[in-house]
Write a structure and sequence with these properties.
The complex is a heterodimer of chains A (113) and B (112).
Chain A (H helix, E strand, L loop, with lengths): L3 E4 L2 E4 L5 E7 L5 E7 L5 E8 L2 E5 L6 E7 L2 E6 L8 E8 L8 E2 L3 E5 L1
Chain B lengths: L3 E4 L2 E5 L4 E7 L6 E7 L6 E7 L4 E4 L2 E6 L4 E6 L8 E7 L8 E2 L3 E6 L1
Parallel strand pairs in B: 2-11
Antiparallel strand pairs in B: 1-3, 3-8, 4-5, 4-9, 6-7, 7-8, 9-10, 9-11
The chains are: A mainly beta (113), B mainly beta (112).
Chain lengths: 113, 112
């Protein structure tokens, strides 16, 4: 019973295309996040949402637009994909209470041709 | 903003030996320090965490120590086993925003 699920698992597309990644959590958490893990395995936060409200936006290009229709879902839409966008994107969630563990999804491997 | 440095970047140990990974952080307001294990092609999974009101925490073969004055914390794995081979990440956050800043990761290889 997957707690944080992302789709798709793999995404291969051409430069310049627009794509979306979906994330859903069934843990009842109020906070959701998007992380980017590059080819050197470095993990960096991109966005976080509390109950559909944007809390953190880490100077990510505005080609990346997160959307949270409800507190259990956080989707990521990327416009005009570039080669440098190739990475693994992880969704995560945590309770609203501060300093609680974040639970990660299985990741979406995005490859730009 | 917060900066977390992690060392070493790779660590090779013989099965049964101990492994130690060290991290330093820059933001004195950080008060939560989790450690994640990531196996190849898998998601990061929390293995242990420590909060700033505690100096040490242990869970079976894993222990974490925190020195708030020096702004560093460490992960200790004893009696290592081949299944401990993975990339380990330390992280730090302050209460506001629950924003985790990760270290660069340590690739641990346990040789049988």
């Amino acid at each position: 019973d997957t707690a944080v699920s992302q789709t798709p698992k793999y995404l291969v597309t051409q430069m310049g295309n627009d794509k979306s990644i979906k994330c859903e959590q069934n843990l009842g958490h109020d906070t959701m996040y998007w992380y980017k893990q590059d080819s050197k395995k470095f993990l960096k936060i991109m966005f976080s949402y509390n109950n559909k409200e944007l809390i953190i936006n880490e100077t990510v290009p505005n080609r990346f637009s997160p959307k949270s229709p409800d507190k259990a879902h956080l989707n990521l839409h990327i416009n005009s994909l570039e080669l440098g966008d190739s990475a693994v994107y992880f969704c995560a969630s945590s309770p609203l209470t501060v300093n609680q563990p974040q639970h990660f999804g299985d990741g979406t491997r995005l490859s730009i041709l | 903003g917060e900066n977390v440095e992690q060392h070493p970047s790779t660590l090779s140990v013989q099965e049964g030996d101990s492994a130690v990974i060290k991290c330093t952080y820059s933001d004195s307001a950080s008060n939560y320090f989790p450690w994640y294990k990531q196996e190849l092609g898998k998601r990061p999974q929390l293995i242990i965490d420590i909060r700033s009101n505690v100096g040490e925490k242990k869970d079976q073969r894993i222990a974490v120590t925190l020195n708030k004055t020096a702004k560093h914390f460490s992960l200790h794995i004893t009696e290592t086993q081949p299944e401990d081979s993975a990339v380990y990440f330390c992280a730090a956050s302050r209460a506001a925003g629950n924003k985790l800043t990760f270290g660069g990761g340590t690739r641990v290889l346990v040789k049988p």
